Amino acid sequence: MQKPIISLILFLFIGFISYGQNDTLINKDSLTNKELKKERKKIIKYKKISSYNDTLILVNNDMMVGEFKRMDKSVVIFKTKYSEKDFLIKWHRVKEIHSDRFFIVVMSDGKRVSSTLNSKKGKSRSVLLDSGIYTTEESLDDIVFLEPIGKNFLSRLTVDLDIGITITKTNNLRQLTSSLSSKYTTNKWTASASFKNVLSRQDSVADVNRMDGNIGVLYFLPNDWYTQLIAIYLSNDEQRLALRSTYRGGLGYFFVHNSNMYIGAMGGLAYTTENYTNETDVRNSSEAYFGLSFNKYDIGDLSLLSSIVLYPSISENGRYRTDFNFDMKYDLPLDFFIKMSLTYNYDNQPIEGASKQDYVFTTSFGWEFN
After folding, report:
1. How many angstroms separate the Cα of 10 from the Cα of each of 1, 14, 16, 191, 200?
2. What is the pTM assigned to this prediction?
3. Strands, E assignment, 120-240
4. Regarding beta strands 320-331 and 302-312, do their DSSP bridges make them parallel or antiparallel, or are they unpaired?
5. Residues 259-317: pLDDT tens digits?
6. What would the DSSP string read from start to end of 246-266?
7. Per-residue pLDDT tens for 308-345?
8. Are 96 and 104 in contact (CB under 8 A)?
9. Burial 299-320 (b: 16+ CB within 10 A, else e)
10. Which end of the chain is more exposed for a tag (fewer CB within 10 A), N or C?
């Protein structure tokens, strides 16, 4: 008696899974436009109980119905009822998108609008943006960021955590590198924070300690301009810095801003306070700053992020500083990643007995929450 009941339960379960899969992923080659529209309405009606009503049609003509969660850095995060894990889809693989929900839409020219998304019939990679006041036709290639309006706090938050460990028998070397970064994005502004730490212990050699971190807010302006306020902190033994605190504010502009990369420039004013090890005096400096940033992310699972900032001093004659950062990140399954980072700091007028430069190169393994 138990075997027939168990068999019936398994049969119904498999049938339900198969039905859900067939309803959510369809090849539209065999369907006419009228049949396709009817099929999509049927799927949306079936999915309404779970609010799975966004539609993607890929370049191979597969149709997926589910929840569009975000498109950023040329990758779509898409959730379906039949899969426990979200799909990651390259943006250039999307041919059409249909949704009645309102999205934050960021264009490559810096324009930011709130609208629905519905691809235009008969035009590949073309979409109509309807804000409720006006409707415009845009190319999917010109959209660099998409996110549904009304998402909760966690859906807008990205957190990266990575750790690297080095242990050698020679001289009993023990080294730990760790990094934590987070980013919160809204329609008009982005807040970010990061913290990096290097601790090294070795027999017959002085301990090495290094810490750098920052926290800041970037506010988007029209035509790819932005304004930024940021606090930057650095401590390292090589330059005898107990703590360097830099507070800067200014304007920036994206020369290139598309679904493949961005290149930006920035400039403004900064104020720096420096406390040194074994020194009682505090060094204060008013500075200007000029910088360049580069982010390349549409190269498979690899992404590159780099920035360089020059600080010519206003209050100290002839002094200037330079900060350079480079990160190369390779994404692994299950939101894990491998990262290599290089940080370089230069000061042409350090205090007596301190080095003009300090750098650290790290490799680490981490996990991303998004």
Report:
1. 15, 6, 10, 49, 57
2. 0.72
3. 126-130, 135-139, 143-148, 157-168, 173-185, 189-202, 205-220, 225-236
4. antiparallel
5. 788 899 999 999 999 998 877 778 999 999 999 999 987 777 888 999 999 999 999 99
6. EEEEEEEEEEEESSSEEEEEE
7. 999 999 999 999 999 999 999 998 888 889 999 999 99
8. no
9. eeeebebebebbbebeeeeebe
10. N
> What residue segments make up the domains of the chain, in order of their start?
2-151, 155-369
Cα separation, 226 vs 109, in Å, equals 13
Rounded Cα gap, residues 12 and 7, in angstroms? 9
Q: How far apart are CA 126 and CA 122, in angstroms?
A: 9
Q: Does domain 155-369 have CATH number 3.40.720.10?
A: no
Contacts of 127 (CB under 8 A, 6+ apart): 96, 97, 117, 118, 119, 120, 137, 138, 139, 140, 143
Q: Say what the alpha-carbon torsion angle 347, 351, 356, 361 is, to the nearest 10 degrees.
A: -90
